[in-house]
Amino acid sequence: MSWTYRCPHCKGVVNPDETVIVLAAREDKQILLGFHPKPGNYTLYLPPGEDLGEGERWDFYCPICRRSLASEEHENLCSLIIWQGDKRRRVLFSRVAGERATYVIEDRNVAETYGEHAASYEARDKGPGVPDGTWPWHKIIK
Ligand SMILES: [Zn+2]
Asked: DSSP character for 50?
């Protein structure tokens, strides 16, 4: 199974081989981060000598057009377009180091959820009277 990841802005492909590359910035540091393309696999590829501190919140940018990958759904989540064959979906993933929360979004619904912190996000953001399975979309369709 192969995936192609694209920037939501310039539509450029950000996984030249298998690894998904984003530009990560925090304070005065900028590094290229590599992610495993399979949603839910949290293997990280870091430049030699670099490490991410647990809980640090990084800004992620497209390595091609350098626009922010921040999502509309939550300030901690970034988004990329994921293509599998001719199927186009979106992936939301946390930009907080060590936080494992990934969502595959299809037609405005959460199709797949990965990571042990995903459920705590739903609990944190779900307002009263919001039915299960509609997070995070309730924030923008209301
Ligand atoms: Zn881009």
From this structure: -
The number of beta carbons lying within 10 Å of the beta carbon of residue 113 is 18
Res 2: pLDDT: 86
Please tell me the pTM assigned to this model: 0.85
Residues with CB under 5 A from ligand 1 (ion): 7, 9-10, 12, 62, 64-65
What confidence tens digit (pLDDT) does each residue in 61-119 have?
Answer: 999 999 999 998 888 899 999 999 899 999 999 999 999 999 998 887 788 999 988 87
DSSP class per residue in 118-133: HHHHHHHHPPTTPPTT
CA of 68 to the centre of ligand 1 (A): 8
Looking at the structure of the chain, the number of domains it has is 1
- pLDDT of 33: 97
> 82 is in which domain, residue-wise?
4-141
Cα of 13 vs centre of ligand 1, distance in Å, is: 8
